[in-house]
Amino acid sequence: MAMKVSLFSTGFSRWPLERAFQVASRCGYDGVDIGGFRPHAYPSDVLGGVNGGASRILGYVQRYQMPIVSYAPENTGSPHSFVFQERELNEISLGYFKSAIDAAKEIEAPLVMFAINMPGFGVDREMLKCQVVEDLKRLSDHAAGLGETVVLEPVTPFEGRLCCSSDDVKYFLDEVDNEALQVVLDLACPLTCGEPMSEYWEKMPGAVREIHFIDAEPNCEDHLIPGDGAMDWPRIVSYLGHVGYDGYLSLELFSRYGNEPDFSAERGIGAIRDLLGSN
């Protein structure tokens, strides 16, 4: 199966969610990744029918013939996070994370994306790593019971400390040891960590379920349209062909592209299709 391209709705945070589906359909994307923030698709809103709930989102799927590839709830800071040392706050976050998996099931998103944000200072990081392992075990068990898959996303060193490199990701996958926990690879991470992306396939064969197919600079976490940054795209695309990757390539844009997401989505898929066509 050839690689497919999806559009991440986070680039449309200043627009109604339907706009992301409209643009994805018009530009020829194969799917949409949904950001679980308000007013688009907050977990309790999806489950409780607020603003049309899951039925509204599934209506967009049908209207634009655009499947949902993954669901990414807000989970990298206040009020919910994996890195609260206080047990009560961690339990509140876990309740929210479980509701996000439930919401993903309701909107027929097979993948639920979580990341581990910056733990801050004055904390016991080894304790936090053990806590995250236990949290991920509970979430993976919950996902497995619903036929869902949790995908752990590494972040750049500018965004976190506990899960940035391929070794970090492998640690959590090995400790959790549940097929319901897999990986989404953001290409900014190996670049900013100074490692080849091949580490993910060599250390965790078959675990990468989706790729955030974006460009970046080594000294910044900003996500760019392929060709706008420093990445070696012929090498990247050639390697993906070599390992037979056939999952989705997701265009996840923010910051500098926020005011013109329609134009950025159109230019982005053009750049990606050109890259795929030249290999």
Written overview of the protein:
This protein is of the alpha/beta class and 279 residues long. The protein has a single domain, classed as TIM Barrel (Alpha-Beta Barrel), CATH 3.20.20.150. It is 43% helix and 15% strand. An eight-stranded parallel barrel has the order 1-2-3-4-5-6-7-8, surrounded by five helices. The radius of gyration is 18 Å and the shape is globular.
What are the SSEs and their pairings?
Layout: E1 4-8, H1 17-27, E2 31-36, H2 43-48, H3 53-64, E3 68-73, H4 87-106, E4 111-115, H5 125-146, E5 149-153, H6 166-176, E6 181-186, H7 188-193, H8 198-203, E7 208-212, H9 233-242, E8 248-251, H10 261-277
Parallel strand pairs: 1-2, 1-8, 2-3, 3-4, 4-5, 5-6, 6-7, 7-8
Which structural class best describes the helix and strand composition? alpha/beta
Count the DSSP helices: 10
What's the CATH topology label?
TIM Barrel
End-to-end separation: 15 Å
Radius of gyration (CA) equals 18 Å
The H/E string reads EHEHHEHEHEHEHHEHEH
Strand order of the largest sheet: 1-2-3-4-5-6-7-8
Taken as a percent bin, the fraction of beta residues is 15-25%
Overall mean confidence score, pLDDT: 96
Largest sheet: 8 strands, parallel, barrel
Question: Helicity level, as a percent range?
Answer: 40-55%
Low-confidence stretches: none
Coarse morphology: globular
